[in-house]
Amino acid sequence: MKKVIHWKFTLILLIVGFMTAVQYNSMKSPEQRDTRDIWTIRQELSNEKQFHSELLSEIRELDNTIKTYKSLSDENTGKALMETVDKLHRQAGMTDVEGPGIIIEVRPSAESIALGAPITDISPDLLTRFVNEVNRYKGFTLEIDGKRFTTLSSIRDINGITTVNGLNVSKPPFSMKIISSSLKESEKMYNYLAASPIHDDFYLDNLLLDIRKPEASIEIRGFPERFDNQFLEEMPKGE
Protein backbone atom coordinates (compact mmCIF):
# COMPACT_ATOMS: atom_id res chain seq x y z
CA MET A 1 0.00 0.00 0.00
CA LYS A 2 2.82 2.35 0.87
CA LYS A 3 4.54 1.58 -2.46
CA VAL A 4 1.40 2.55 -4.38
CA ILE A 5 1.11 5.85 -2.49
CA HIS A 6 4.82 6.55 -3.04
CA TRP A 7 4.48 5.85 -6.78
CA LYS A 8 1.46 8.14 -7.13
CA PHE A 9 3.21 10.88 -5.15
CA THR A 10 6.28 10.63 -7.40
CA LEU A 11 4.12 10.84 -10.52
CA ILE A 12 2.36 13.97 -9.22
CA LEU A 13 5.70 15.60 -8.46
CA LEU A 14 6.94 14.83 -11.99
CA ILE A 15 3.85 16.39 -13.54
CA VAL A 16 4.09 19.47 -11.33
CA GLY A 17 7.80 19.82 -12.09
CA PHE A 18 7.21 19.49 -15.84
CA MET A 19 4.47 22.15 -15.81
CA THR A 20 6.69 24.46 -13.73
CA ALA A 21 9.56 24.05 -16.19
CA VAL A 22 7.29 24.78 -19.18
CA GLN A 23 5.88 27.88 -17.50
CA TYR A 24 9.36 29.12 -16.57
CA ASN A 25 10.61 28.62 -20.11
CA SER A 26 7.65 30.51 -21.58
CA MET A 27 8.18 33.39 -19.18
CA LYS A 28 11.90 33.46 -19.89
CA SER A 29 11.50 33.45 -23.68
CA PRO A 30 8.15 35.10 -24.52
CA GLU A 31 7.00 35.07 -28.10
CA GLN A 32 7.71 38.23 -30.08
CA ARG A 33 4.47 40.00 -30.79
CA ASP A 34 3.79 42.51 -33.54
CA THR A 35 2.88 45.69 -31.69
CA ARG A 36 2.18 47.76 -34.80
CA ASP A 37 -1.34 49.11 -35.15
CA ILE A 38 -3.59 48.07 -38.02
CA TRP A 39 -3.15 51.32 -39.93
CA THR A 40 0.65 51.00 -39.97
CA ILE A 41 0.35 47.48 -41.34
CA ARG A 42 -2.18 48.61 -43.95
CA GLN A 43 0.16 51.42 -45.04
CA GLU A 44 3.09 49.02 -45.43
CA LEU A 45 0.87 46.63 -47.38
CA SER A 46 -0.25 49.47 -49.63
CA ASN A 47 3.37 50.47 -50.27
CA GLU A 48 4.29 46.89 -51.19
CA LYS A 49 1.33 46.64 -53.56
CA GLN A 50 2.31 49.91 -55.22
CA PHE A 51 5.90 48.69 -55.61
CA HIS A 52 4.63 45.43 -57.11
CA SER A 53 2.41 47.34 -59.53
CA GLU A 54 5.35 49.51 -60.64
CA LEU A 55 7.48 46.42 -61.29
CA LEU A 56 4.72 44.89 -63.40
CA SER A 57 4.40 48.11 -65.38
CA GLU A 58 8.14 48.16 -66.07
CA ILE A 59 8.06 44.50 -67.15
CA ARG A 60 5.17 45.18 -69.55
CA GLU A 61 6.97 48.19 -70.95
CA LEU A 62 10.14 46.17 -71.57
CA ASP A 63 8.11 43.38 -73.19
CA ASN A 64 6.50 45.90 -75.53
CA THR A 65 9.92 47.30 -76.42
CA ILE A 66 11.19 43.81 -77.30
CA LYS A 67 8.11 43.12 -79.44
CA THR A 68 8.62 46.44 -81.22
CA TYR A 69 12.23 45.59 -82.07
CA LYS A 70 11.26 42.15 -83.36
CA SER A 71 8.53 43.54 -85.61
CA LEU A 72 10.66 46.29 -87.16
CA SER A 73 12.60 45.97 -90.36
CA ASP A 74 16.34 46.60 -90.45
CA GLU A 75 16.02 50.18 -91.67
CA ASN A 76 13.62 51.11 -88.85
CA THR A 77 15.58 49.42 -86.07
CA GLY A 78 18.05 52.30 -85.81
CA LYS A 79 15.24 54.81 -85.41
CA ALA A 80 13.64 52.70 -82.67
CA LEU A 81 16.96 52.46 -80.84
CA MET A 82 17.43 56.23 -80.98
CA GLU A 83 13.94 56.73 -79.55
CA THR A 84 14.79 54.35 -76.72
CA VAL A 85 18.04 56.21 -76.04
CA ASP A 86 16.19 59.54 -75.94
CA LYS A 87 13.67 58.05 -73.50
CA LEU A 88 16.45 56.80 -71.25
CA HIS A 89 18.08 60.25 -71.37
CA ARG A 90 14.83 61.79 -70.15
CA GLN A 91 14.50 59.22 -67.37
CA ALA A 92 18.09 59.86 -66.29
CA GLY A 93 17.41 63.60 -66.12
CA MET A 94 19.77 64.61 -68.89
CA THR A 95 17.22 66.74 -70.76
CA ASP A 96 15.47 69.99 -69.83
CA VAL A 97 11.89 69.62 -68.61
CA GLU A 98 9.10 72.19 -68.66
CA GLY A 99 5.61 71.76 -67.28
CA PRO A 100 3.18 72.47 -64.42
CA GLY A 101 4.67 72.36 -60.96
CA ILE A 102 5.45 74.05 -57.68
CA ILE A 103 8.42 76.02 -56.33
CA ILE A 104 9.47 75.56 -52.71
CA GLU A 105 11.77 77.94 -50.88
CA VAL A 106 13.80 76.76 -47.89
CA ARG A 107 14.64 79.68 -45.64
CA PRO A 108 15.63 80.35 -42.01
CA SER A 109 12.79 80.67 -39.52
CA ALA A 110 11.82 84.12 -38.26
CA GLU A 111 12.67 83.13 -34.68
CA SER A 112 16.23 82.10 -35.58
CA ILE A 113 16.76 85.39 -37.43
CA ALA A 114 15.38 87.43 -34.50
CA LEU A 115 17.63 85.59 -32.02
CA GLY A 116 20.65 85.99 -34.29
CA ALA A 117 21.19 82.25 -34.59
CA PRO A 118 23.80 81.30 -37.20
CA ILE A 119 22.43 80.03 -40.52
CA THR A 120 23.61 76.46 -41.05
CA ASP A 121 23.40 74.10 -43.99
CA ILE A 122 20.39 71.84 -44.33
CA SER A 123 21.35 68.40 -43.02
CA PRO A 124 21.49 65.40 -45.39
CA ASP A 125 18.99 63.52 -43.21
CA LEU A 126 16.44 66.33 -43.37
CA LEU A 127 16.84 66.71 -47.12
CA THR A 128 16.48 62.94 -47.55
CA ARG A 129 13.27 62.96 -45.49
CA PHE A 130 11.89 65.68 -47.76
CA VAL A 131 12.74 63.65 -50.88
CA ASN A 132 11.01 60.63 -49.32
CA GLU A 133 7.89 62.72 -48.79
CA VAL A 134 7.92 63.78 -52.44
CA ASN A 135 8.49 60.16 -53.48
CA ARG A 136 5.01 59.28 -52.26
CA TYR A 137 3.91 60.63 -55.64
CA LYS A 138 5.18 59.22 -58.91
CA GLY A 139 5.87 60.78 -62.29
CA PHE A 140 7.49 63.99 -61.05
CA THR A 141 10.74 65.81 -61.78
CA LEU A 142 12.73 67.32 -58.90
CA GLU A 143 15.40 69.98 -58.72
CA ILE A 144 17.21 70.91 -55.49
CA ASP A 145 19.05 74.23 -55.47
CA GLY A 146 19.54 74.07 -59.24
CA LYS A 147 20.71 70.45 -59.11
CA ARG A 148 18.68 67.82 -60.94
CA PHE A 149 17.65 64.96 -58.65
CA THR A 150 16.97 61.54 -60.18
CA THR A 151 17.01 57.90 -59.08
CA LEU A 152 20.77 57.99 -59.76
CA SER A 153 21.32 61.00 -57.50
CA SER A 154 22.76 60.92 -54.00
CA ILE A 155 22.55 63.15 -50.93
CA ARG A 156 25.72 63.05 -48.84
CA ASP A 157 27.70 64.93 -46.24
CA ILE A 158 31.12 65.79 -47.66
CA ASN A 159 33.45 67.55 -45.23
CA GLY A 160 30.49 68.82 -43.22
CA ILE A 161 28.66 70.21 -46.27
CA THR A 162 25.44 68.72 -47.67
CA THR A 163 25.79 67.80 -51.32
CA VAL A 164 23.51 66.59 -54.12
CA ASN A 165 25.29 64.70 -56.91
CA GLY A 166 28.56 65.77 -55.28
CA LEU A 167 27.68 69.48 -55.62
CA ASN A 168 27.32 71.70 -52.55
CA VAL A 169 23.81 72.76 -51.52
CA SER A 170 23.67 76.48 -50.73
CA LYS A 171 22.93 77.74 -47.26
CA PRO A 172 19.27 78.73 -46.89
CA PRO A 173 17.53 80.41 -48.53
CA PHE A 174 17.50 78.25 -51.63
CA SER A 175 14.69 76.92 -53.82
CA MET A 176 13.48 73.53 -54.99
CA LYS A 177 11.25 72.80 -57.98
CA ILE A 178 8.84 69.93 -58.59
CA ILE A 179 7.26 69.35 -62.01
CA SER A 180 4.29 66.97 -62.23
CA SER A 181 2.53 65.35 -65.16
CA SER A 182 -0.41 67.78 -64.94
CA LEU A 183 -1.60 70.84 -63.07
CA LYS A 184 -4.03 68.62 -61.15
CA GLU A 185 -1.18 66.43 -59.93
CA SER A 186 0.74 69.55 -58.92
CA GLU A 187 -2.22 70.67 -56.84
CA LYS A 188 -2.30 67.26 -55.13
CA MET A 189 1.41 67.55 -54.40
CA TYR A 190 0.92 71.08 -53.07
CA ASN A 191 -1.94 70.07 -50.75
CA TYR A 192 -0.02 67.05 -49.47
CA LEU A 193 3.18 68.95 -48.73
CA ALA A 194 1.27 71.85 -47.18
CA ALA A 195 -0.25 69.47 -44.60
CA SER A 196 2.80 67.22 -44.20
CA PRO A 197 4.51 66.89 -40.79
CA ILE A 198 7.81 67.48 -42.61
CA HIS A 199 7.31 71.16 -41.69
CA ASP A 200 7.93 70.26 -38.04
CA ASP A 201 11.20 68.56 -38.94
CA PHE A 202 12.36 71.67 -40.76
CA TYR A 203 11.25 73.94 -37.93
CA LEU A 204 13.31 71.93 -35.42
CA ASP A 205 16.34 72.81 -37.55
CA ASN A 206 15.31 76.50 -37.58
CA LEU A 207 14.13 76.25 -41.19
CA LEU A 208 10.84 76.91 -42.95
CA LEU A 209 9.31 75.45 -46.09
CA ASP A 210 7.59 78.15 -48.12
CA ILE A 211 5.47 76.26 -50.69
CA ARG A 212 4.12 78.43 -53.48
CA LYS A 213 0.90 77.84 -55.34
CA PRO A 214 1.09 75.53 -58.39
CA GLU A 215 2.13 77.24 -61.60
CA ALA A 216 1.15 76.28 -65.13
CA SER A 217 4.73 76.22 -66.39
CA ILE A 218 8.12 76.04 -64.70
CA GLU A 219 11.44 74.82 -66.11
CA ILE A 220 14.01 72.42 -64.70
CA ARG A 221 17.41 72.09 -66.28
CA GLY A 222 18.84 68.76 -67.31
CA PHE A 223 21.74 67.03 -65.60
CA PRO A 224 24.84 68.85 -66.93
CA GLU A 225 27.22 65.89 -66.80
CA ARG A 226 27.31 63.07 -69.33
CA PHE A 227 27.52 59.43 -68.33
CA ASP A 228 30.72 57.67 -69.30
CA ASN A 229 30.35 54.37 -71.14
CA GLN A 230 32.91 52.10 -69.49
CA PHE A 231 31.78 48.63 -70.51
CA LEU A 232 29.62 48.71 -73.66
CA GLU A 233 31.30 48.59 -77.04
CA GLU A 234 29.80 49.04 -80.49
CA MET A 235 29.97 45.87 -82.56
CA PRO A 236 31.34 46.13 -86.11
CA LYS A 237 28.69 46.13 -88.80
CA GLY A 238 27.67 42.73 -90.06
CA GLU A 239 28.27 40.92 -86.76
- CATH topology grouping of the domain at 97-220: Alpha-Beta Plaits
Query: How would you characterize the largest beta sheet?
Result: 6 strands, antiparallel
**Form type:** extended
Mean pLDDT: 77
Which structural class should the secondary elements be placed in?
A: alpha+beta
The CATH superfamily label of the domain at 97-220 reads Protein of unknown function DUF881
Overall helicity: 40-55%
Work out the strand percent.
15-25%
CATH C-level name of the domain at 97-220:
Alpha Beta
Radius of gyration: 30 Å
Distance between the termini: 100 Å
Can you write the helix and strand succession as a string? Answer: HHHEHHEEEEEEHHEE
Note the total helix count.
7
| CATH architecture descriptor name of the domain at 97-220 | 2-Layer Sandwich
Low-confidence stretches: none
Number of strands: 9
